[in-house]
Amino acid sequence: MNFDSVLGIETQDSADTSPILVVPYVWIGDFVRGHTVVRVLKKRWPNRPVDLLVTRQCAPLVDYMPGVRAGIVSDLPRSRLALARQWALAAELKARNYATALVLPRTWKAAIAPVLAGIPERVGFFGEARFGMINAMRWGERQLPRFIDKNAVLALPAGAARPAEWPVPQLRVPTEEIGRWRQANGLGSGPAIALGPGSVGESKRWTYYPEAARLFAERGFDVWVVGGPAEKAAAQQIVATGGPRVRDLTGTDLRNGILAMAAASVGISNDSGLMHIAAAIGTPTMGIFGPTDPYLWAPLNGLASTVLQTKSKLPCQPCQRTVCTMNDHRCMRDIAAEEVVDIAERVLAQISVR
């Protein structure tokens, strides 16, 4: 698909300039995929500003999303309503005079601030008895096959047919910023492989990143391990196995991960937020899948390679579970490090002849 194409969606009113708020899912990968919603809205109303509610963790992504005017940072706690903070958020939203709010999560809690802010049109799917809170209610979410369908259809008119293809998420990272980042981290200008060993859910984590890092280093590649604080221990193990050409670039700032994936020649990741970041940037991306279904969860952008266990079809696969409860994690353990490294070299060879 053409990275910039938006097909099958009609422009409705170029004169409308009333702002729109999108309340997205805030896991990193889901937040990146939410950029498709922005692109649909901007196609329908080119001159309506679109803002996103965002957590501090995801906030750096907004800087690279075309069509987003601003990110409204709000780290509301997951375990309680926090009404005082909801009122404070609502006051900020009210001051921005939104005419429409798209509430992507089906939860009651996600709709509180838009209601308190008095946003006139509040669009969302039925869920948790949100009658009155969502006043432009949509139905039939469970009949939609993929997560992206459930989100992006809310940006269309009620009852409208889905386009043959949704516009893909985009992250545009300036070349000069990538260069400054590499220089600041002493990373030189040569080709590098970025590894994303983390994921939400233990079962989605491929076992052999340390061995793959060692093989890449032996074949002359620099290797960067990318992730958050939860990946620090894995990164240290990968560096210890891979040797001096392997760098631990994990940290607390997601911007670091964005720039690493933008600078890399190839990104290799589990089914995780970093996979979606790399694909949205346009970096050739290899996604390693075991318990999850690539049809449902792979990036719309497409992958340079979808890596799956092919020795034998496991009866439990895809289980969609966060922890393996049968077959001893074979869906991931049966993907060998040599296989992933060989695929990556083929991907690099294809890039070099373009």
Automatic annotation (TrEMBL):
<dbReference type="InterPro" id="IPR011910">
    <property type="entry name" value="RfaF"/>
</dbReference>
<dbReference type="GO" id="GO:0005829">
    <property type="term" value="C:cytosol"/>
</dbReference>
<protein>
    <recommendedName>
        <fullName>lipopolysaccharide heptosyltransferase II</fullName>
        <ecNumber>2.4.99.24</ecNumber>
    </recommendedName>
</protein>
<dbReference type="GO" id="GO:0008713">
    <property type="term" value="F:ADP-heptose-lipopolysaccharide heptosyltransferase activity"/>
</dbReference>
<comment type="similarity">
    <text>Belongs to the glycosyltransferase 9 family.</text>
</comment>
<keyword id="KW-0808">Transferase</keyword>
<dbReference type="InterPro" id="IPR051199">
    <property type="entry name" value="LPS_LOS_Heptosyltrfase"/>
</dbReference>
<dbReference type="InterPro" id="IPR002201">
    <property type="entry name" value="Glyco_trans_9"/>
</dbReference>
<dbReference type="Pfam" id="PF01075">
    <property type="entry name" value="Glyco_transf_9"/>
</dbReference>
<keyword id="KW-0328">Glycosyltransferase</keyword>
<dbReference type="GO" id="GO:0009244">
    <property type="term" value="P:lipopolysaccharide core region biosynthetic process"/>
</dbReference>
